[in-house]
Amino acid sequence: MTPARPPARPAPAPEPDPTTDQANKDAMSSPTTVSPASSASTASTLITNIAALVTNDPSLGSPLGLIQDAAVVIDGERIAWTGDQSKAPATDNRVDAGGRAVIPGFVDSHSHLVFAGDRTQEFNARMSGRPYSAGGIRTTVAATRAASDEELEANLTRYLAEALRQGTTTFETKSGYGLTVADEARALRIAAAQTAEVTYLGAHIVPPDHADDPAGYVALVTGEMLDACAPYARWIDVFCEKGAFDGDQARAILTAGKAKGLHPRVHANQLSYGPGVQLAVELDAASADHCTHLTDADVDALANSRTVATLLPGAEFSTRAEWPDARRLLDAGVTVALSTDCNPGSSFTSSVPFCVALAVRDMGMTPDEAVWSATAGGARALRRDDIGRLTPGAYADLTLLDAPSHVHLAYRPGVPLVSGVWRRGVRVV
Ligand SMILES: [Zn+2]
Prior knowledge:
Layout: H1 18-25, E1 32-33, E2 44-53, E3 67-75, E4 78-84, E5 93-104, E6 106-108, H2 120-127, H3 137-146, H4 149-165, E7 168-174, H5 181-192, E8 197-203, H6 214-222, H7 224-229, E9 235-240, H8 247-259, E10 263-268, H9 276-282, E11 287-290, H10 296-303, E12 308-311, H11 313-319, H12 326-331, E13 336-338, H13 352-362, H14 367-381, E14 398-401, H15 408-411, E15 418-423, E16 426-427
Parallel strand pairs: 2-5, 6-7, 7-8, 8-9, 9-10, 10-11, 11-12, 12-13
Antiparallel strand pairs: 1-5, 2-3, 3-4, 5-14, 14-15, 15-16
Helix pairs in contact: 4-5, 6-8, 13-14
């Protein structure tokens, strides 16, 4: 398990530095940048003294592609080399990881971060066993419509910074709290300024102003609203659920999106059994998200497709609902991703490490599987092969843990273990 790959280009030998020597003597010492990291993304950087490196390169003998006593070379914004630290090539800069673990940056493939307002009272009532009669998603829709662009942008960037500090280097986010042509297009325009993974979710719920005319709302979502939103989005999504959109409506919405060049993903089988998963597979959706209530036929369909099952345990945690059965999916051969579903109503966490811990404790995943699903699995759910892995050619998106192993993400739940984050080769945390 010591792959020796050539660096992308030759680099001068690093200057010896006493700081490095000292850091090497102190196991688990603070990571030390010996030479100043360049933000110009042209220099090469060696990160060495990594106790455990998760590459997600299956050719190394396991899905996680784990390398011990490892090093990584970053060249510009890409990974140039990984392997045994004793074989690392020379670079411009050098970072001592202090005997810590390094994993790919988390790929959070499902969030709802363009919103305004707060639903603390709703959560408090639910967790206190009291009835709560306010409008759920409708509450957030009203607050989002009333907010200025600046408020929505500030909210989004605040939660992105929060996620980044917890190791998330790629995120997907959706519209779905505007539900008018102008408000949906605005949400997507604001999201597109922050990420390439933008999803049009005009079909989140039928808004109160169309309560008596759901067919008219579907016509809007597949017509004028789609035309206004498609330029900002890569994906189209629908909440296929009792009380939201049925199978026929969901099929019409996703098919219209595909015709406009948007690729499908589906909120499927969250609250009840239904047609969402089968529809996702039929339309080659990148992901069926939630997957809490599945028949054997649903599991078989996922296993025989390239549609990823994205599990969102923050939602079950925050609503005291039944956990999705990750073990059943994995044993059937389904590709599983883990994501936060960060939203102000049913899962107000931006923490992928928290979701990893829940998946291990309550959903039957091993720590290795959960870390894979939160990195490589998320990348699969976004049909990306340039993220979610630390192999030559991939983006240098990586997270340094204040722990000797990735297992600590589940072993030490709730502890802020992320001590460094690089995105596109630049250290940002
Ligand atoms: Zn969602």
